[in-house]
Every structure is written in C-alpha cells, then in structure tokens.
Amino acid sequence: MDDVVIVDVDQKIIWGHRRPSWETPMHTYVHKHRADVFAIMHTHSWYATLFAIANRDLPPGTMPLAAQFGRTVRCAPYARTGSDEMGSINLEYLGPDGKGVLLGNHGTLCVAPSLKKVLALSEALEHGAQMVYQSASLGMPVPLPEPEVKYLFDLVAGFEAEEREAEKVRSHP
Q1: Could you give the angle at which helices 46-53 and 115-135 cross, rounded to 10 degrees?
Q2: Is residue 150 part of a domain?
Q3: Phi then psi for 75, rounded to 5 degrees?
Q4: Is 32 part of any domain?
Q5: pLDDT tens, residue by residue, 89-134
Q6: CA dist list (Å): 164 to 14, 114, 170, 173
Q7: Please, which residues bridge with residue 40 across strands?
Q8: Three-state secondary-structure class, residue 17
Q9: Segments forming the whole domain that contains residue 93
C-alpha cells in the first residue's frame, strides 16, 4: 500500500506519499467529464497495444467484444503522456457512453461504473484483440453484423441490470 497514491479530480493528493502517475491528468479528465465512470483501467496489454501501435480500430469480431463494448473500439491518435491533450483526445474517441479506447502508440483505457466491470472490460478487450489479431493470419477478420452486436450488448446490459437489482435486494434485508 505504500506505493498507492489517491488523488481527487483536481489531482490533489488525498492519500499517499509518492508522486502520482504521469497519466493522472488523463484519468482525472475522464472522471470530470463522464459522471457514469467510477473505475478506470489503463493497461499496456500485449495484443490490444499492437492495435494501438498500428493505429487500428478493433472491430467487434468476437461475441465478448460485441457484448462488452457494443461497437468497434476506436483508436485515438497518439497524445504525449502527461499532456493536457491526452485526456481530451482519448475522451473524444471514447465518446459519451463508450467503454474502451485504444490509446494510439500507447495502450488501452477502459471505463466503467465499478472495479469488477472495468476488469471484465479490460480482459475482454485484450482477449478479443488477441483473437482478431490471430484470425488475420487466415484472412481479413470479419466483424459480427451490427444487429448481432447490438443484440449481444443489450443482452449483457440486461443481465448486469438484473444482477445490480438482485444485489440491492441482498444488501437491504
């Protein structure tokens, strides 16, 4: 726990003795501009980062990608680490309700209302990127049709809503 630093959305240190990450401005920018986001996960996972290095969007080529993201995961242009533009550029490509973005020449960023969900998104993004990348050896990957992407995304959203309601019932006797 000595390495953990907690900051508020204005980057003021709340807890800890270390210097916050260079990428703190990106995280706080997203928190300031997306009221639905309570958890952010930034990774340099192998296969998703390959797409980011190539500045290629990641199409919904697998059911989990479609179910978790509901659309193509866009790749934002490169922004210098720690720069003021890093947050705004990546938020623009993330969009008002997006759940993940590839950070050009850098890595990934997933956002969610909970830690559990943001971890699931990050895992789905990396696994999906691996599958799409490897399928390219067989030819051009084929994304799922748009109606199927919407169906799978809505299906998972419905299950998650039911899960949240059940949790409310369990936690309030």
Answers
A1: 70
A2: yes
A3: -105, 120
A4: yes
A5: 999 999 999 999 999 999 999 999 999 999 999 999 999 999 999 9
A6: 30, 11, 10, 15
A7: 111
A8: coil
A9: 6-171
Model pTM score: 0.90
Q: Is 100 helix (H, G, I), strand (E, B) or coil?
A: strand
CATH code of the domain covering residue 135:
3.40.225.10
3-state secondary structure of 7: strand
Burial 78-94 (b: 16+ CB within 10 A, else e): ebeeeeeebbbbbbebb
What is each CA distance from 117 to 22, 37, 124, in whole angstroms? 24, 11, 10
Can you give the pLDDT at residue 26?
94
1 within some domain: no
- Out of 23, 85, 126, 167, the active site residue is 23
Q: Please give the tally of structural domains in the chain.
A: 1
- Work out the angle at residue 104's Cα, subtended by the Cα atoms of residues 53 and 97, and round it to the nearest 5 degrees: 130
Classify 110 as helix, strand or coil.
strand
Catalytic-residue membership of 146: no
Whether 135 is in a domain gets the answer yes
Contact at 8 Å (CB) between 105 and 24?
no
Q: Which whole number is the average pLDDT over 127-151? A: 95
